[in-house]
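Anyone opening a protein record will find just a pair of labelled lines. The record below illustrates this layout.
***
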Amino acid sequence: MRLGPWEIIAILAVVLLIFGPKNLPKLGKSLGQTVKNIREGMEGDDAAEEELSEEDKEIKELEAKLAEAKAKKAEAAPVDDEDADK
């Protein structure tokens, strides 16, 4: 759905009637700050995801090392069936 020029003019006229000419600059400034904050927030989320993924990689590496150590320990000390019966 595209807005034509007449629809945009009508919307602007309604906004002008609702907020008045004195409040339009404040409204524009607030809208601009909101858009800026949203963009900064979205960029911050990307950085947090990258940092989190780095932590996830480190955790996976540590889990793999732990699994290797457990496997080596199990191989080094096999349990005899006779010892298990006692």
User: Anything to note?
Assistant: Residues 33 and 39 are 10 Å apart (CA to CA). The chain has one domain: 7-75.
